[in-house]
Amino acid sequence: MVNFGGKKVGQVVAGIGGNGVGQVLAAVAVSLLFRLFTGPGPALVTDDDSAYGDDDERNDVAEANGDGEAPVDGKVFPVRFLLNNVSGEAKPGRLLAIMGPSGSGKTTLLNVLAGQLMASPRLHLSGLLEVNGKPSSNKAYKFAYVRQEDLFFSQLTVRETLSLAAELQLPEILSVEERDEYVNSLLFKLGLVSCADSNVGDAKVRGISGGEKKRLSLACELIASPSVIYADEPTTGLDAFQAEKVMETLRQLAQDGHTVICSIHQPRGSVYFKFDDIVLLTEGKLVYAGPARDEPLAYFSRFGYTCPDHVNPAEFLADLISVDYSSAESVYLSQKRIDSLAESFLQRSSTILYASPLISREGYKKSKLQKRTIVKKKGGWWRQFWLLLRRAWMQASRDGPTNKVRARMSIASAIIFGSVFWRMGRSQTSIQDRMGLLQVAAINTAMAALTKTVGVFPKERAIVDRERAKGSYALGPYLLSKLIAEIPVGAAFPLMFGAVLYPMASLHPTLSRFGKFCGIVTVESFAASAMGLTVGAMVPTTEAAMAVGPSLMTVFIVFGGYYVNADNTPIIFRWIPRVSLIRWAFQGLCINEFSGLQFDHQHSFDIQTGEQVREGKKPVCFIKKIMECKQNKKIIKMTISYIAPWETFWVENKLFFFVVILQALERLSFGGSRISDTVMAQSRILLFWYCTTYLLLEKKKPKYQQLELPNPEQTQQKIQLEPLETDLPPEKEQIKSTRQVESESPPLDMYNLEGAK
């Protein structure tokens, strides 16, 4: 039990509870700290690249009125339209490419179609999404979304990655033979047979190539047999050969009957001619939508823009719809050209071919009801747990580079500390040395575990968020499996540290005390890792986690029982030692070390036993009287007047040193505590951090913007749609005709997907 100015912690807390002021202040401090770390801040729109894609696309968007301004609290602010009057159609068997310069809205359009646009109160999204001619929602059909970043567990092989994904997403495939056959077919289909047994790899470990990772992303998304495939910049970061292989794979998937939509910046000529249809976007507006290859060149030639011979059509189109920022005049001319092309296509699109029934709000509501019946079947809780436990164990045990670095650092730090505190004896000066060593051991163990976790978990969280968004598993099985899988590996490094340090420093030489020492630092290591998980769940990036984690640990170090005098600690901070894992580890190590330890003593004021250190007791009464006397120096000189002057100086300072040590021990009194108490306190801290991590991950689960239906009166006034007969026999489906309907303007933000199931 730690004493604060003569009062025990329980007495201090009881005293605070009497008037309630301290509790209120402590609660306010905790709430402010929690708000500081978890609050969204003044910017309500996320900066995550997955939300808006390119950097220029991450802009604040407010709900807009007709004149391009948004009223907020009586004020009018300008509005940036990320997408404006974008309409189109994607068909099965055809590869549709969305092209445009950076910031044109390519990724935003893909996110809208896939229902993956991050929600924000500043964002307003309205439009219609039709599937096979019927109003529908994003979740009413199976789709695959291949993002720009290829995120995998680096220590798993390609085959293991696909097999685990198949087991998590397709629990109905119970037979191992059926699952292996299904995985092998995907490997063959995506051209991954040659690297099936290679590790995926990452920046630390060499693995498969970038093109193979992109095709592995496609394979993982194809496991659930989606009818629509979205691919965001699938050729980013790939060389020309790998980019062409990836696009050939997408084209083959389209020919197999999938509806494939991809965004691409500026493809090479051979890649461009693989597209069946293209959509040209600039500044969120349509410039062209229709067949690819020579048709867009013929269309723009009507306006006097002809593609020169031997020029890549994709480069010509990209230059045509991009703003030239080389000079003020070029900016004006290129912007004028883009506005003219967008307006021309808008007028041309007023004559539209429709093959869908009349859209109504009632039909849209029915589609919302229909989507609830399409629920992806997941495996049971225990099945998810065992699969995730197997994956977590493979990742933790195979991470050779990280484990080697941690092992070397544990041994190196133990050797350094052991050399500094080499062979501590039983002298009086060894008391301070032992306490310093135990404090350093507690700090080193906690910081090593924390640094490793905050450096890894934010990246892993991105993978988990994607898999949870697909409904592969729940959060509970994941966290529990991660905790259990990392116990053997996480315990190895504190054991290495203790095995080297303990004999070098000549700590309490019994096997049981050594076992307790290793047990205390191991539990502390797990608690620090759990705190690292919480930090990784609070912040969005690894860099932010590396900044927040050590800063938070520094607070616990300051209140770790060795540096701060409790009498000078503000009341609102006196709760921190109770939640400081450094303090509890240090207390447990001190109890383990000093209990039953005998020290060499020559004077009556020397500390004789470790119990005196634990309990902070003074060896003799006259020491207290000496320190309380105003003329203590005179008394000391009278006491030792019979010895030499140089010995007088030594004894005087030694006596003063021991008095200071005794006062420090009185403040650090552990007399009323046991090792089991400290271990239980660390276990409660570990459980607290894990529960906090769970709540944060559940709270920060990605939320996506809902597509709202536009004003039905406005839509029906501008567009007259002729319903078609949908009950025709199969042999007559090919002769269905569409009626060309004249309208004042095209529908607002309408997209039709065919071939979706």
UniProtKB/TrEMBL annotation:
Instruction: Write out the transmembrane intervals.
Output: 478-502, 514-538, 544-564, 679-697
**Superkingdom of this protein's organism:** Eukaryota
Entry annotated with the keyword Ion transport: no
Q: Known InterPro entries for this protein?
A: AAA+_ATPase (IPR003593), ABC2_TM (IPR013525), ABC_transporter-like_ATP-bd (IPR003439), ABC_transporter-like_CS (IPR017871), ABCG_dom (IPR043926), ABCG_transporters (IPR050352), P-loop_NTPase (IPR027417)
Q: What keywords sit in the KW lines?
A: ATP-binding, Membrane, Nucleotide-binding, Transmembrane, Transmembrane helix, Transport
**Keyword Transmembrane (UniProt):** yes
Q: How does it sit in the membrane?
A: Multi-pass membrane protein
What sequence ranges are listed for the domain ABC transporter? 56-308
Enumerate the subcellular locations listed in this protein's record, separating them with semicolons: Membrane
User: Gene Ontology terms, cellular component aspect?
Assistant: membrane
| Region (Disordered) location | 709-757
Compositional bias segments (type: Basic and acidic residues): 729-742
A molecular function annotated in GO for this UniProt entry is: ABC-type transporter activity
PANTHER family, per database record: ABC TRANSPORTER G FAMILY, ABC TRANSPORTER G FAMILY MEMBER 28
Please state what the protein is called: ABC transporter domain-containing protein
